Amino acid sequence: MFKEFKGAYPVIITPMNSQEEIDWEGLKRNIEHFISEGVAGLVINGSTGEFVSLSKSERFKVVETAVAQIKGRIPLLVGTAAETTKEAIEYTQQAEAAGASGALLINSYYAHPKEEEIYEHFKAVAGAVNFPIMIYNNPFTSGVDISTETILRVGRDIHNITHVKESSGDIRKVRDISRQGKGFIKTFCGSDDLVLESFLVGATGWISVAGNAAPKLVTNLFEAAENNELEKAWELYDKILPLCRFIEESGKYVQIIKRVMDLKGLAGGPSRKPRLPLTPEEDAKLQGILESLFVIQK
Fold first, then answer.
1. Given 91, 119, 136, 237, the catalytic residue
2. CB 33 within 8 A of CB 66
3. Residue 192 has pLDDT above 70, yes or no
4. Identified catalytic residue from 165, 186, 252, 258
5. Is 91 a catalytic residue?
6. 20 to 30 A Cα–Cα from 149, which one of 70, 129, 257, 286?
7. Tens digits of per-residue pLDDT, 31-90?
8. Cβ–Cβ < 8 Å for 268, 261
9. Does 136 qualify as catalytic in the annotation?
10. How far apart are CA 136 and CA 257, in angstroms?
């Protein structure tokens, strides 16, 4: 249904109650909130969604719940990462069968696979489904910085690998994949503090953590860049950069966004341990940033 992914996609949290159990009604409310704010699409079961802290049955149910709530109104990408290729295939097939629009797939994150192993992993998973796959390069969480050559090779060789989420922080990689991959693979920015730069060198979308806090602002930023309204785009970027930097530099992006959702009157809750809540100093800094964005009132 959604062959083309484009724009700012918030990667959402998995809300929980005080017992660290998933708040299923809260998840539905959050999804409805983002749709009402006009986001281009959503991502579930990503790193921000604590996928590594969820059981298999919980991950499956998150997909089923989100698909049922969205009802095809916007694209839904599902994180289907797993340490083994066999498990990644299972998660990806379940996402397709449930009715998701596509998968977001990273390489094994503990084995530190070599380039050929990464290629074969992506090829095997993509070959087991028919819907589009966005591969994911994030050396900070997976321990491997996939080469530009391998990303281009994957996109060229495998018809349903259509996009890459590029989170290495190397703007040259975004540039080279965007330009050299024309016609077979498109780039999404995965580094919140490099998003406008990524748009300017060819990225067509943004998997946005900050978009949880300010979904309209990130949407407007993408649209301004797409329409070549650069002065407006820089103005919006300057507004959201403090939040983007805080998210990228804190190491607590899950806790930050869960706290954001609570402060906005939506469903957030605690993260599963060992993640601990924000310190009072971190919380005060976050609230100051949100007040400057008019996300919350003083």
1. 136
2. no
3. yes
4. 165
5. no
6. 129
7. 999 999 999 999 999 999 999 999 999 999 999 999 999 999 999 999 999 999 999 999
8. yes
9. yes
10. 21
